[in-house]
Amino acid sequence: MKKNIWIIVTLILTILVHLSVFLVPISMLDGYFLIIKPMLWLIIGGFVFAVFDKKKRVYRDRQTFRYIVSLGIIVYLFVMFIAGVFMGFSYNPFNTTFLGLIRNFWTFVPIILIKEYVRSRIMQTAPEKSKYIILTLVTIVFAFVSLDTIRSVVTFSLGFQLDFILTTLFPLLVLNLFLSYSALNGAVGSNIAFQLIYVGLPIFLPVLPNVQKIFEAIMLYTSVFIMYIIYDKFSFERNKKEEKNIVQTKYHWKWMIAPALILTFCLLFAFGALPYVPVAVASDSMRGEFSKGDVVLVKKKDLVKKEIIEGQIIQFKTDKNRDVVHRITQIITTPQGEKMYITKGDNNNVTDSTPVRENQIVGLVEYKIPYIGWPSILLSAK
Fold it and tell me: In Å, how far are 285, 306, 341 from 329, measured between CA atoms?
């Protein structure tokens, strides 16, 4: 009974800490997130450390959860960055300068560490009879305290609130359900790793996949679903073997080599570390050479050794930052000595209205892959 009381007190404290943002004037919010909120979480962490039992349970599935959560991280990153390859990337709205990264680190990382420590102590302390009730409460409370936009949510219109529920609240509930279940099985380290990856992506990377929020939510659902299915399958097989007195075969890290290598390649590709950049063709202006839904591989301009000449197909940025893939029909030189490129889509009747300057050229189209750009086009359609 005493354990349940301490658990309830801790959950109430975490809710109060999260709601404390409503007591802060808008002009002081910056200082709140930078100083006050981390300090409040440190107090909660100290409270949990002081009052909860330090003894650790023995978990037979802890190692399994580590592998499963590692797989979930790989799946999430892999799909997100593959999506970025085809949908494009955008600059991170967070400050990613050196001082900005330090600030981001202090604002988010200690809270993640303390939050997962508190979650793990609660779940490891939960009495056997009420552990699933505690699991439900922890899932709801920790999903709530993960809502960094709670102050602005209350001012949303109904339409925005529905969008918020589908793209933010439900994913947080699903994620925290699995994290709480994982903590129940002793895998706090894996939870911290997943949280750091999930939360850290939009905080520390200079560019991010330019995908819609609903797509991010679906990818998170998929990752958590895969983790749950694998664990469910493992538990079923383990129970069958234990019934037959067969020793359980241990997992090995080698099974992660192939997906990790593929993920590394995709990250390098997405960040432009490789010579070619993929571009999904969004119109039929070049029909005959390639069609809408194809993907062309563009060799970056700095890596093109030969001179760009008439007749070649280039990718360039318009003044409105729109990507266009058209053929050069003429190269002219201005009185100031600047080269200008006249371009045209093979399937268009007239040339493009504005000449392309040299600094607008992204690269030279060298290869095409039919059809695989359709998911990007369909998901980007408004």
Answer: 14, 18, 8
Count, in order, helices (H) and strands (E) of the chain.
13, 9
Residues 6+ apart with CB under 8 A from 280: 86, 87, 293, 294, 295, 373, 376, 377
What residues contact residue 226 under an 8 Å CB cut-off, 6+ apart?
Answer: 71, 72, 75
Residue 107 structure tokens: 């604002």
Q: Decide if 325 contacts 318 (C-beta within 8 A).
A: no
pTM: 0.60
Element at 340 (helix H, strand E): strand 339-344
Q: What was the pLDDT predicted at 6?
A: 86
Domain shared by 218 and 313, yes or no: no
Comparing 221 with 114, the larger pLDDT belongs to 114
Q: What is the full DSSP assignment across 73-93?
A: HHHHHHHHHHHHHHH-EEE-S
* Residue-number span of the structural domain to which 358 is assigned: 277-380
| Cα–Cα nearest to 85, from 262, 266, 321 | 266
Query: What angle separates helix 131-144 from helix 170-184, to the nearest 10 degrees?
Result: 140
Encode pLDDT of 205-255 as tens digits.
Answer: 777 777 777 677 777 777 777 777 777 666 655 555 555 554 444 444 555
The answer to whether the CB of 363 falls within 8 A of the CB of 277 is yes
Give yes or no: residues 145 and 45 share one domain. yes
How far separated are the first and last CA of the chain, in Å rounded?
54
Could you tell me if 286 and 346 are in contact, meaning their C-beta atoms sit under 8 angstroms apart?
yes
Residue 20 is classified by DSSP as G
Of 208, 241, 270, which closes a domain? 270
User: How many angstroms separate the Cα of 369 from the Cα of each of 70, 215, 273, 295?
Assistant: 31, 23, 20, 5
Q: Are residues 36 and 155 in the same domain?
A: yes
Same domain, 243 and 288: no
Into how many domains does the chain fold?
2
